[in-house]
Each structure stands twice: as structure tokens, then as C-alpha cells.
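does this look right to u?? adenosine-5'-triphosphate version
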Amino acid sequence: MEKVVALCKRRGLIFPGSEIYGGLANTWDYGPYGVLLKNNLKNNWWKTFVTSREDMVGLDSGILLNSTVWEASGHLGSFADPLMDCKKCKERVRGDKLIEEKFGVEAVAGKSFKEIGEIIAKEKLPCPKCGECDFTEAREFNLMFKTHQGVVEEESTPVYLRPETAQGIFINFKNVIQTCRKRVPFGIGQIGKAFRNEITPGNFTYRTREFEQMEIEYFVDPKDEKGNKKMFEEWKKQAMDWFKSLGVKEENLRFRDHDKDELSHYSSGTVDIEYKFPFGWGELMGLANRGQFDLTQHEEFSKEDLKYQDPQTNEKYLPAVIEPSFGVERSVLTVLLDAYDEDKVGEEERVVMRFSPKVAPIKLAILPLMKKEELQTVARKIFDELKEDFQVEYDESGAIGKRYRRQDEIGTPFAITIDYDSLDDDSVTWRDRDSTKQKRVKIADLYEILKKEVN
Ligand code: ATP
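got this back:
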């Protein structure tokens, strides 16, 4: 992990947040290459799950919502973690995480705060900072960030930064069915920021307080149990296939079914896709059967009729929901960790990010062999032609070997060099990042070759 964190900083992928002011713990900023990677991933998700499907539509709802939304969703009441303080060194820990790290997630599933405290005392689980086992009782800590809307703080209404994007979808369900010709089963997808005041953020971008989610609420007929089971299995497969399509190695991915005790109050079945992070298997996305819980709650709290009317039978009902919920940062982190590799080119060691061309920040590096006008002119012309449709980078400074190394480290899958032969044969040398093999290709064919490779 340290190597990836260092490379991200060195090569402009991810920087520590607020760095010139001494930083702000567990915040990260995506640099010039990081933002390209992140956007490629989000765009790929949006295309795969929203725009290329007839049964899906998109949405972009607000971060600030009427606070009653969070009463209805249960977040104001139960979205809490067991917070404990070490009496010796004052370190603040999440009781459930202490147990989870030692005995696995099953050991805390369904345990009350009291039971969590008891397990920690019985097993003498040490404080991660000072090693003592002397904690305060587990207290409830709500994960939502609270702020105020209005000019005078004392008179203003409290509002919350959304802890998930899902509720923005549920509260717009009626708007969507009234404006789009969608019939159940159909889904609404959304990508956006979410905020959780996590007690123990960490592991680079794995757990942060500000992050982005890519969520789908897929509405189905609750009576069609058999069909919904099949649909759940389909979503399971599609979610896994998506990670594989980004080039993530199969052996580093797995499904993990939640135990009955572990399920959220609304869920009748949940499965996670986990990735083998350097610190152990961790959740990458979750797929939950939310049933009719959300729409029922919002109907009750808003007093609005949120029922869907089947156009064929005229029957009215509240759809049940299957929710695939992905994290942007965890997906990016997975792609980064999975792509990191070290190998040797001849005698020289190199670090290479083996990103799939689909998500690579830069698809092609355009490198005139020397800073000579004739070569620069040809290289610039190629750059101008390709830049409309592909993220390409022009780089003319430094030795060619050094320029290749730099591109290897930001994971650029292909590079071309323009040399004096190019002026005669209208060809360039095409270099493949992974094999480092080189071949001559015609300048006129570059567009088509790149199109094929990137898609
Ligand atoms: P965890 O158990 O790791 O706290 P969760 O089960 O609370 O995660 P969900 O509520 O299912 O997570 O959120 C869906 C997805 O959002 C997660 O699979 C993850 O990718 C992402 N996510 C959730 N919390 C965070 C966070 N604090 N930082 C980064 N990503 C997060």
C-alpha cells in the first residue's frame, strides 16, 4: 500500500488533502491524472449501468435534503456506530471494528453495544495506539454531518449532508414515474458525494468522511418472488462482471453473503463484493434486497401516494427495491492496487501501472524522439488529430527511456515515438506498455488502432 500511496503522490494521481496547511486527516485530493482515472471509471459505470440500458434512467439529486427524509429512512435514529475511548491514551475507536479485525465480521454481526463492550473486555482486545485494554462503555455516535440552513445559526433549521445517495432517488420516485415512460422493473442510477463522520477512517482512500457513491435503486414487483430472486442474481453477476471488465484480477475478488444477524433493518438479503486489499478482504460494493421499506417509509412520512400503477392491470402497489451500491473511491483504489507492478526492462527495474486502457488516465503518449522542429511538427499534428476523441499526452522533454518510465508509472498503455524515418515512411514506432514490444505503424492507421485498443 505504501508504494501505491507514494506513487500516487509522485505522479499526480492522489495528493494528501490541504497539504500546504499541514493537512486534514484522511482527506485526499485527486490530481491531474487521478481525476482522469476517476472520471473514466465513473463514465464507464454510467454508460454500463445507465445510458446503455433501456430499463434504467439517471438522476442527480441534492446533497442537502429536507431533514424529514432522514427520519423516514431511519438514519436519524439508527445510523450509529459504537464509539469507545481508551481511558489511558484517549484514542477513539470503533468497538465493532476492534472485534472485526481480530475475529472477522461474523463475530460482531447483530451484537448490541453492550455485548461489543463485553467481548472486548473478555478477549482483552488492546487499544491500537497504546496497547492497553481499558475502554469507556460503547456510546452511540451518529455518522451524519449536521449543519444549519439559514443566516442566524440559533434560528436556522438543522440539515444534514447526505450519508448516501439512495434517499435522493426514493424521494424522486414519483417524479420519475410521472415523467418517464418506465415500467416496473426499472431502475434509477445516481453518482454523487456522500458524507459520513466515520470514527476510524483510514487505509488511504478506503474509508474517508467524504466520498462518492454510484448507486442504483431497481424497482420490482414485490409479488414476483421468483422473478426478483433471478433479478438479484443477475445484478450480482453484472456487478462482478463490471469489476472484471475494468481489468481487476478475478482471484482478488469475491462475494460475501451477509449473515442474518448482520443485515440492515430493511434488508432481507445482502451480498457484498469484496476485494483483497493489502490490509485484508474489504467491501467494494454491496447489493441489498431493500424490499418495500424505503417507499413505505417515505409514503408514511410525506403523506404522498408513492404507488406505481401497472398500466396493463391497473393494479397499484409500492415496488420493492434491489439496490446495487458501489463506492467510487474504493473502486479507484482497487484499480490502482490491482494495476501496480514492478518488473525489469533489460537490466532496468521499472514500476508499471497495468491499467486497462478503458480506465487509464492517458491512452497514448506522443513522443517526438528529439526536440527538432521537423519531428515536433509531425508529432503535434498527430496530437491535434487524436485529442478530440482520446485523452492523449504530448511530451518532448528528456531522454526517451525516462519518458517511457514516466508513462509506465501513470499507466499509459501505449506510446508512439516520431523519428527521422517517420518523415519518409509516414510511420511511427508504437510501444506497448506491458510487453514493451515495439512495432512500426502507419500514422494514417493510428486513430483506428487506438479506437480498437481503448474500447
Ligand atoms: P463499511 O461496512 O465498509 O462501512 P457500508 O456497508 O457502510 O461500508 P454502504 O452503506 O453499503 O457501505 O455503502 C455502499 C458503498 O459505499 C460501499 O460498498 C463502499 O464502496 C462505499 N463507502 C461506504 N462508506 C465509505 C467510506 N467511509 N469511504 C469510502 N467509501 C465508502
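The pocket of adenosine-5'-triphosphate is lined by residues 164, 196, 198, 207-208, 211, 213, 283-286, 325, 327, 329-330 (CB under 6 Å). idk if thats expected tbh
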